[in-house]
Design brief:
Elements (H helix, E strand, L loop, with lengths): L1 E2 L3 E8 L9 E8 L13 H5 L14 E8 L5 E12 L15 H4 L12 E10 L4 H16 L6 H10 L1 E2 L6 E4 L7 E4 L12 H9 L1 H12 L3 E6 L2 H15 L7 E3 L16 E6 L12 E5 L4 E3 L13 H13 L2 H4 L14 H19 L7 E5 L5 E4 L1 H8 L5 H8 L1 H11 L2 E2 L3 H8 L1 H7 L3 H19 L31 H17 L10 E2 L6 H5 L4 H4 L2 H15 L3 H14 L3 H16 L4 E2 L1 H16 L9 H9 L3 E5 L2 E4 L13 H27 L4 H4 L7 H11 L5 H30 L10 H4 L38 H19 L4 H31 L19 E10 L20 E8 L2 E8 L9 E6 L3 E10 L6 E9 L3 E7 L5 H15 L8 H4 L18 H17 L1 H4 L9 H4 L20 H4 L7 H12 L1 H9 L8 H6 L2 E4 L15 E4 L4 H8 L9 E5 L6 E5 L7 H6 L14 H14 L13 H8 L17 H11 L17 H6 L4 E6 L14 E6 ...
Parallel strand pairs: 10-12, 10-13, 11-12, 19-20, 32-35, 33-34, 33-35
Antiparallel strand pairs: 1-7, 2-3, 2-6, 4-5, 5-6, 8-9, 13-14, 15-16, 17-18, 20-21, 22-23, 22-28, 23-24, 24-25, 26-27, 27-28, 29-30, 31-32, 36-37, 36-42, 37-38, 38-39, 40-41, 41-42
Length: 1858
């Protein structure tokens, strides 16, 4: 029973305190006068009576009523019901003295003007109670007011006395009728269960005012402890809203500041830092504006304002959505049917009171879903004397799968939940609706999810219960309470409220208390019971699918692996291991691991050998590395007992336990983890304690009770609590003591455990835990440990814990403190006695110290362990003369951005990462090792590249293996498109890695070219600098010296001052511009001493030798081949020979970078040449390098012009005197020189009436301006360009042009064309105007400079060989390829070359004069010759071309390849590689025109930078002579195995094997190639992307030969399984051309083997091949000249002979083979865009299909056939079969399925046909013929007339034969 009201207070306005602004209230009277003992009088009531301040009003207001809530110091709530009315204030005038008189009105004289308006002061009647019965209070106070105002004849004292003595039951649902003795009657209804809040209608009203979303925001804000402020102009509404919010939070209780009505004087409370729920009157809204972190709900406006800085975590989805929907169903039932055509009429919302309960039911369900299964995560630590219960938050979140959820995490951390655990955790108590819901209804709620009807039904059921709780009885007896008459507050003569007699009231109260004391105490019969736990979380969470994801297969793998480890089957375990590590990503697999290991501990197999120990440690680490510090899945908890169980013997008496190797995890440093573990263990022990007792007591009953172990700790506790009151005092004490000592012993146990896991193996190091977590590399000894760096201990504690001085303290102190703090916390919580606690604090330092001592011994021993067995290092094969500079360092080769080897886009097990060693030799960097993935562990992985090709080396940190530390590594990038990303093994000391880098650097950039491998090969370092060429040619060395001396003398002071050998570094000098723009770059040459330049007339004997040597050089051989001049000076020849070979540069005096012999016009004197050379950069004056044998047009090359050179001459054309600077004679000589070139052309005609090319182009081409098609953009179709310049130039359409070498309509051309075009750089030729009188024309084009090539190449390398997989999808391969602009540059070069080819072919000469004349000039000039002259497309010719244009004409190979220290800064510029790429593009388009294969190009690309051969070293012939290189080869070549020249090496290899040969080589005479150069026609060269991991690059032929055989033998020994013939070929691993050679190579190889077996001397492959070809030709002739016998049909434009069909690359696969064996018949082309063409009977490969049919083929070929009615023409492969007397047709030649048969017996006639609709356009009409059979007419069309005729003849002859 409780008092209905504790105090009655009368509060009035205090006139004394009126001075400043607001007045104050004062308590006029209170009853009872002295405080109740159990409930002191609350302070500050007067503030709450007038929350907005005490003020006087000018008129009477109607009485008001509201309930304020005060909270006392014990957080008890007091409800203050305030009833306020207004009374007139006595004014200060004398005449209004009579106080109680009724006659105020008469005395006031209306005439008195000074009369102030009357003022009214508020007065409040206040009831203070601990019960919230607002309605009763309203009625009671109303009654008192009524008695006063209506002057009823009832004693107020009596009524108040009765009110204060009235007692009512708190709970139980009883109705109590009370009367206050004024003839009134009230019924007080108590709730059935007081744990459920009473809300009447407040919740429903709150939703009405704010709406669903807003209330949900407030609800979440309140639960996650934000500050909430309600605003309203009604106090009652504020109270209701606050009450409603609390009711929604049930079963959690709000424990922070709660003030539904905050008085004005206390507004500063709003800036408190703690959370609150407060209501404030809206007039103070402006004061609330500056609150930054308060959620403000305006009840009147219906808004909720969340400030920017506040983030409210909302309910986790799907709960949020479900709650919203449920609320909407309750509040707005019409919504569901709003769209129906015939909405049901009955739908309406429930009454407000019922709606209120339904809303609460929704929230009750929500909490039941949020907290389902919470009782399974309670730990009961003590049962007696008081139960102590803790909640295992991490486990709860983990099992619910909500670890990431903000909302739930915050709720569980909040105060409200802590209160919930304390209140509801107890296992034995009375239960309410929530307990039942969470225990029994969870399954039902899960089942009903998504079914709205069922959900609504459930909500209504719950609402009914809640309603029942507040209103148990339907028929409520009517209240009877007198109310005042209407408008009584406006009465004018109202007496003030009378002064009450304290004595009377006090007497009534005393009497009542006396009566209560004599009455027997009412015992509340509490129904206590055991709280039901409900289903465990696991049972509920099944559907989350986490369990399913970890399929049984994975768990099986884990189990098998562990059993292999314990059975010592290490190899098996190793194979499964990666799969286990992958499976560990799943939770189920981790649990499985802990269970399996547990089983093995129980079988006492915990002492392991080293390898087993290692595996177990790795698994544990992998298991732990994904655990968060919370350990929400209990993995660390399950492993904790295991890490102290598994161990290995290091030596007698010294054992290493697993914990020393798994310390590196953040979970061990988390104090909450340790607490949870501790409580869990304590609970188990206490459970055991009582179970044992029970078993002793109930041994006899066991049979009836069944197994007792199944009881959970909570059940046992509840049983104990039930029995507790019945036990004797001694028994109680005994139990308390037992429990206490259990907890204490666990605390000691945990102090030990924590020291195990927190003390690192090597404690000697005074190492701070903060920096590197708690573990250490050494703790691994030889185990792999994960890299999850332990979160530092220090940071996870608060700073007040005294960790500031941790810097100076050592590890031991650290750990001692950590454990102390833990012990303090858990022992005080679990009630360990103080003495015990002190004892513990003394013990901990000793425990730690002891552990450190044992660890020292373990650490010492573990260091002595032999390192773990790693695969032995494999030695790489070396070349002859290649030596190891550094022995192998053990490394891991890591996967880079290429997916293939890592098992990416082609599947298969990953070959990388691989474990092996890196070797540094004098020539290469080589990695050789085996993949770490055991499934491919037998393969060998090799990746290498020449040191000289290294372009970038950077240090990186990589994690080499899943379970390993981060290691230092290197990333080495090579311009042979290779990348080595290596991580050094931990056994490699960092200084040896440094030494490796230093050596690498030294070898990469030798001081001088002599230091490169090509020179040092095979020499011991001492002899490195001695000349090797003494024995055969004694004068050679002296000759070289003389040459150099002479050159130096001659050159005078221009070069002498510079460093020896290195040409000036342009890049360094002009940092922003490439030399093109620096106009007076080499004006030095102006100062040269004229006399030194005059050529010596008599050639000294040594010079004669030079000349002999020069004559043997490639250039000279080539000049003679073209008939371009002769050395003999006999006049007879020279008259008709327009060019001569000049020896002016034999001493390299005029131009160092030119060859010694040059072709110049016959008419130009040598001394003129010297003067001309000054106009050009680097003195590279125009010289002839090729002549078109048909048109006699010549190709010239030179460097770009200087500013003082010809540009000037062009600018002031025909008036050299006009420009004063031009008066000197050089420009005239320049002009003469060019004129001489023009004169040399045989059809050179007079200039009259001739237009220039630019005029022609603007007139006849629709291009955007002069030469518009060669803009820098370079994207305009080069096909159009070919048409414009080439063919339109020739005045006819491209397709009709016969490019077969006849000068077509020469006279027409001559009118429209300049005789010489100078292709120059646009930036140089600014302001050059075309002049009709000149015979040449300048074509300005934009080219890219070397810097752009470098930049582009870098991007290309990154695109083709990315360093790491790109996460960003925008950086895809094709995009980065495009951004590199490499293909645009190739396009540009090809475009210019095709232009030049066109010009030369149409009879104009061309001078290419770009940059310094040695980069892009060389590229263009070489390509032009390659396209124009078939000779250069042979092996011999290509060599000559490279030697002449690249080597002799001084492309700076060493400088561009950055081969020495001096050129290091300039970086690598792949000019030559770009040229080879262009050749590759042409080769792809014209596969039949080249004698060499693609492999040949790749071979050159690789070796021109590899420095294996001397061919591509140094920058010019001059430098090569200076080093004595140039003529050395002749004398010395055969003396050694080492080949110094790449050409000799290629020749030798080519004799042995056909690797450089292109089987499809079938050239046409005099063919000029015009490749397409659009970017869409260009392909990325596979040289950039392919690699062969099985043997490294295949370009060092000796290394890769003879490997596969022994590998296979090794395989066979292992495998007992039957051998299969099946081979798996990995594109990135195998060398495809060797493993799966093309058919011809294979046949040649078989032939060779057969000859060997027969004991014959095998024939050279070339001879065999030539014989086959010859025999095929004769066969073709016998069969008739026009048989389509070529095995490859080229496309319709026969002069292009482009390859659109499938053709053979060097690594083609045998079955799609097309050969072009005979060139004569290859011109039979089909218009069917590259469909396979004809094939001959003897050479067919048809035998693989159907023998029977292929013998019956008497004639076959491709015809177009018109389909049946309305069908199109289609090409088909027809076979005429005499034997079967039929004509069959197939889809294509390769097709085995016959598409149809025409029986020749049915044929009536063959007639010539006519083309019908849809027939092929290009075919002659006469090629059509019709075949008439009895059934239908077939229409056919052959490629040309002859073929049609042949078909008709053959079919006729068949018919006549029949």
């Amino acid at each position: 029973m409780a008092r209905l009201a504790d105090y009655f207070v009368l509060v009035g306005y205090d006139p004394g305190k009126r001075g400043s602004g607001d007045g104050q209230g004062q308590i006029l009277q209170r009853f009872p006068e002295k405080d109740w003992e159990d409930n002191p009088f609350p302070q500050g009531i007067e503030l709450f009576c007038q929350p907005s301040g005490w003020q006087l009003f000018t008129e009477r207001n109607p009485p008001t009523f509201f309930v304020a809530v005060l909270t006392d110091i014990n957080s008890e709530r007091h409800y203050c019901a305030c009833f306020t009315f207004w009374e007139a204030v006595e004014s200060a005038q004398p005449q209004s003295h009579p106080r109680n008189g009724e006659g105020e009105e008469e005395e006031e004289e209306p005439s008195s003007p000074v009369q102030p308006a009357q003022l009214f002061a508020p007065k409040s009647l206040v009831l203070v109670s601990r019960l919230d019965h607002a309605e009763v209070f309203r009625n009671s106070l109303g009654l008192i007011y009524t008695i006063y105002v209506d002057g009823l004849s009832v004693s107020l004292e009596n009524v108040i006395g009765n009110l204060l003595t009235c007692t009512i039951p708190i709970t139980g649902g009883a109705q109590r009728t009370i009367s206050l003795g004024a003839g009134d009657r009230q019924v007080i209804q108590t709730p059935i269960n007081d744990s459920l809040p009473v809300s009447s209608c407040s919740v429903a009203l709150l939703f009405r005012q704010l709406g669903i979303t807003n209330v949900l925001y407030l609800f979440c804000a309140a639960l996650t402890e934000h500050k909430i402020l309600f605003l309203s102009s009604s106090y009652q509404r504020l109270t209701d809203a606050c009450r409603a919010l609390l009711a929604l939070m049930f079963p959690l209780k709000y424990s922070f500041t709660y003030v539904p009505i905050l008085p004005a004087q206390l507004l500063e409370v709003l800036s408190t830092p703690t959370p609150f729920i407060i209501g404030v009157h809206s007039i103070f809204q402006s004061e609330t504006q500056e609150l930054l972190d308060v959620v403000i709900a305006d009840l009147d406006g219906g808004t909720v304002n969340v400030p920017e800085c506040v983030h409210i975590s909302l309910l986790p989805e799907p709960l949020l959505q479900q709650t919203r929907e449920a609320l909407s169903m309750v509040l707005d039932p019409e919504l569901e049917v709003a769209d129906l055509a015939f909405p049901p009429s009955t739908i309406s919302a429930s009454s407000l009171k019922m709606q209120d309960k339904e809303i609460r039911a929704v929230f009750l369900r929500l909490f039941a879903q949020l907290l389902q299964g919470y009782r399974w995560c309670l730990h009961i630590i003590r049962i007696h004397p008081e139960p102590v219960i803790r909640f295992h938050k991490a486990a709860f979140l983990g099992q619910r799968g909500l670890t990431e959820d903000d909302f739930l995490t915050k709720v569980l951390e909040g105060m409200a939940f802590a209160g919930f655990v304390t209140e509801r955790g107890a296992p034995y108590r009375s239960i309410d609706l929530f307990d039942e819901l969470v225990a029994y209804e969870v399954k039902r709620m899960r089942a009903e999810e998504g079914n709205k009807q069922k959900i609504l039904r459930h909500i209504k059921e719950l609402a009914e219960k809640l309603y029942k709780n507040e209103n148990p009885y339907p028929a409520v007896t009517m209240h009877k309470v007198q109310k005042p008459t209407e408008g009584c507050h406006l009465r004018l003569h109202q007496k003030p409220f009378p002064h009450l007699d304290e004595g009377t009231v006090q007497w009534i109260i005393d009497q009542a208390t006396a009566k209560l004391q004599t009455a027997p105490p009412a015992v509340k019969a509490e129904k206590k019971c055991m709280v039901p736990s409900g289903p465990p979380i696991a049972a509920i969470m099944e559907r989350n699918g986490n369990a399913l994801a970890n399929s049984a297969r994975r768990l099986e793998v884990v189990r098998n692996c562990i059993s292999y480890v314990f059975e010592n089957k290490m190899l098996e375990a190793k194979k499964l291991f990666p799969a286990v590590l992958r499976a560990m990503k799943g939770r189920a697999a981790r649990h499985c691991l802990t269970q399996e290991l547990n089983l093995h501990v129980q079988q006492n197999r915990a002492v392991l050998d080293h390898q087993q120990f290692d595996f177990i440690i790795r698994m544990m680490n992998c298991c732990l590395q994904d655990c968060t510090a919370m350990d929400e899945h209990g993995i660390a908890a399950a492993l904790l007992p295991l890490v102290t169980a598994f161990c290995r013997k290091l030596s007698p008496g010294i054992t290493q336990f697993a914990y020393s190797c798994v310390q590196e995890h953040v979970v061990w440093t988390n104090i909450q983890f340790w607490e949870a573990m501790f409580y869990c263990d304590v609970q188990n022990h206490i459970r055991a304690l009582y179970l044992d007792n029970n078993e002793e007591n109930h041994m006899d009953e066991e049979s009836t009770e069944g197994p007792q172990e199944a009881k959970s700790a909570l059940e046992i506790a509840s049983e104990q609590l039930r029995l507790w009151p019945t036990m004797s005092r001694e028994k109680q004490q005994e139990l308390i003591q037992k429990e206490e000592s259990t907890v204490f012993s666990q605390a000691i146990h945990y102090a030990n455990r924590m020291s195990y896991l927190l003390l690192p193996l090597d404690t000697s190091k005074n190492r701070l835990l903060r920096s590197s977590g708690l573990g250490d590399v050494e703790s691994v000894s030889n185990s792999f440990v994960t890299n999850s760096i332990a979160g530092s201990v220090a940071e996870s504690y608060d700073t007040e814990s005294g960790f500031e001085d941790a810097e100076s303290s050592d590890v031991a102190n650290y750990v001692v403190r950590f454990i102390n703090r833990f012990v303090d916390k858990v022992c005080t919580e679990s009630g360990v006695t103080n003495d015990h606690l002190k004892g513990l604090h003394v013990m901990i330092p000793d425990i730690v110290q002891m552990h450190i001592e044992t660890l020292d011994a373990v650490h010492r021993e573990s260091k002595r362990l032999p390192p773990i067995q790693k695969p032995k290092l494999l030695r790489p094969n070396l070349l002859v003369g290649e030596e190891c500079v550094m022995e192998g360092l053990r490394v891991y080769l890591m996967p880079d951005g290429r997916e293939e080897a890592a098992g990416g886009n082609i599947g298969g097990p990953p070959l990388l990462p691989a474990e092996g060693a890196i070797f540094l030799t004098t020539y290469r960097i080589i990695f050789k090792g085996t993949p770490t993935d055991p499934l491919v562990g037998e393969q060998v992985v090799i990746r290498s590249f020449p040191i000289a090709s290294l372009t970038k080396e950077k240090k990186i940190n990589i994690q080499a293996q899943v379970d390993q530390f981060i290691q230092e590594g290197l990333q080495l990038r090579s311009c042979t498109f290779q990348l080595l990303k290596i991580a050094f093994d931990e056994e490699v000391a960092s200084d040896s890695a440094e030494i490796f880098r230093k050596h690498l650097h030294k070898l990469r950039y030798p001081q001088h070219v002599r230091g490169t491998f090509a020179f040092t090969v095979g020499q011991s370092p001492k002899q490195a600098m001695q000349p090797k060429a003494k024995e055969k040619n004694p004068s050679l060395r002296t000759l070289s010296k003389n040459l150099v001396k002479n050159a130096k003398k001659t050159i005078g002071r221009q070069y002498v001052t510079r460093k020896k050998y290195t040409p000036p570094m342009w890049e360094q000098r002009s940092s922003q511009h490439f030399p093109e723009d620096n106009e007076d770059e080499i004006s030095v040459s102006e100062e040269m001493d004229r006399s030194t330049l005059t050529p010596t007339t008599t050639i000294k004997p040594s010079d004669k030798m030079t000349i002999n040597h020069l004559v043997e050089r490639a250039c000279c051989r080539d000049y003679q081949r073209m008939g371009l001049g002769t050395l003999s000076s006999s006049l007879t020849r020279s008259k008709n020979e327009p060019f001569r070979i000049s020896t002016v540069n034999r001493m390299y005096a005029i131009c160092r970078s030119y060859p010694g012999l040059l072709i110049v016009p016959q008419s130009i004197q040598d001394n003129t040449i010297q003067r001309i050379s000054r106009c050009y950069r680097q003195n590279r004056f125009p010289v002839v390098c090729w002549r078109n044998s048909r048109t006699k047009a010549v190709l010239l090359r030179s460097g770009g012009l200087h500013g003082k050179g010809v540009v000037g001459l062009f600018k002031s054309q025909n008036a050299p005197t006009a420009g004063p600077s031009q008066t000197d004679s050089t420009s005239l000589e320049q002009e003469k020189y060019l004129q001489a070139v023009i004169n040399s052309m045989p059809h050179y005609a007079d200039a009259s009436g001739r237009n220039t090319l630019s005029g022609f182009t603007s007139a006849h081409m629709n291009s955007s301006g002069k030469w518009g098609s060669i803009r820098a953009g370079g994207r305009i179709s080069s096909y159009a360009l070919n048409m414009e310049i080439g063919s339109r130039l020739a005045g006819k359409d491209l397709l009709g042009a016969q490019h077969n070498g006849t000068p077509s309509e020469a006279s027409f051309l001559r009118q429209h064309r300049a005789s010489l075009y100078i292709i120059g750089d646009k930036s140089q030729l600014k302001g050059v105007k075309p002049d009709p009188l000149q015979h040449w024309e300048v074509v300005p084009i934009e080219v890219f400079d070397v810097r752009q090539v470098k930049a582009s190449f870098k991007k290309l390398m990154k695109a083709c060989v990315p360093g790491c997989p790109s996460t960003d999808p925008s950086v895809a391969y094709l995009r980065s390829l495009e951004e590199s602009e490499w293909l645009s540059q190739i396009h540009k070069i090809l475009q210019i070359s095709v232009l030049v080819v066109e010009l030369l072919d149409t009879g104009s000469s061309v001078l290419v004069s770009l940059e310094d004349g040695w980069d892009i000039t060389t590229q263009v000039v070489s390509l032009v010759q390659l396209l124009s002259d078939p000779y250069y497309r042979t092996l011999e010719g290509f060599r000559l071309l490279v030697e002449k244009e690249w080597l002799s004409f001084g492309h700076r190979f060493s400088h561009r390849g950055a081969q020495t220290l001096a050129s290091q800064s300039s970086g690598f510029a792949p000019i030559f590689l770009q040229f080879l790429d262009c050749v590759h593009q042409i080769h792809l388009q014209f596969p039949m025109e080249f004698e060499f294969s693609q492999y040949y190009l790749k071979f050159l690309s690789y070796h021109y930078i590899s420095n294996r051969f001397r061919t591509f070293l140094l920058d010019s012939d001059y430098e090569r002579i200076e080093l004595g290189l140039l003529y050395e080869e002749k004398g010395e070549r055969k003396s050694q195995q080492v080949y110094k020249s790449i050409w000799d090496y290629i020749d030798r290899l080519n004799k042995k094997a056909p690797i450089f040969f292109n089987y499809m080589y079938a050239p046409e005479d005099g063919e000029v190639l015009r490749p397409y150069s659009n970017i869409s026609n260009l392909k990325v060269w596979d040289y950039y992307t392919e690699e062969t991991l099985s043997e490294g690059p295949s370009y060092d032929w000796e290394l890769t030969q003879g490997q596969p055989e022994h590998v296979e033998e090794a395989d066979r020994q292992d495998t007992s399984a039957p051998q299969t013939k099946r081979k798996i070929i990995w594109p990135c691993y195998d060398n495809r051309s060797r493993v799966e050679p093309d058919a011809i190579s294979k046949l040649l190889e078989e032939l060779h083997n057969l000859e060997m077996e027969l004991g014959q001397v095998p024939e050279r492959w070339k001879d065999t091949w030539d014989k086959v070809k010859a025999s095929q030709r004769t066969e073709a002739r016998q069969e008739g000249s026009r048989t389509p016998s070529s095995l490859l049909m080229s496309s319709g434009l026969s002069h292009h002979r482009r390859s659109l069909g499938v053709y053979l690359q060097e690594s083609g696969v045998g079955s799609t083979l097309n050969l072009s064996l005979d060139s004569d018949t290859s011109s039979t082309s089909t218009p069917s865009s590259g469909k396979q063409g004809g094939r001959k009977s003897t050479s067919t490969l048809y035998s693989q299909f159907q023998m029977s049919e292929s013998e019956n083929r008497s004639y076959e070929g491709s015809l177009y056939k018109k389909g049946a009615f309305m069908k199109p023409w289609k090409p088909r492969w027809f076979v005429l079969d005499k034997t079967k007397h039929q004509l069959r047709y197939y889809d294509s030649r390769m097709d085995t399925e016959c598409k149809g048969v025409i029986d020749l017996a049915e044929v009536e006639s063959i007639t010539p046909g006519t083309p019908s609709m849809g027939a092929p356009k290009t075919v002659d009409e006469k090629a059509f013929f019709d075949l008439k059979t009895t059934k239908r007419v077939y229409n056919f069309c052959a490629q040309d007339v002859q073929l049609a005729q042949q078909w008709i003849d053959r079919i006729q002859s068949c018919l006549s034969d029949a």
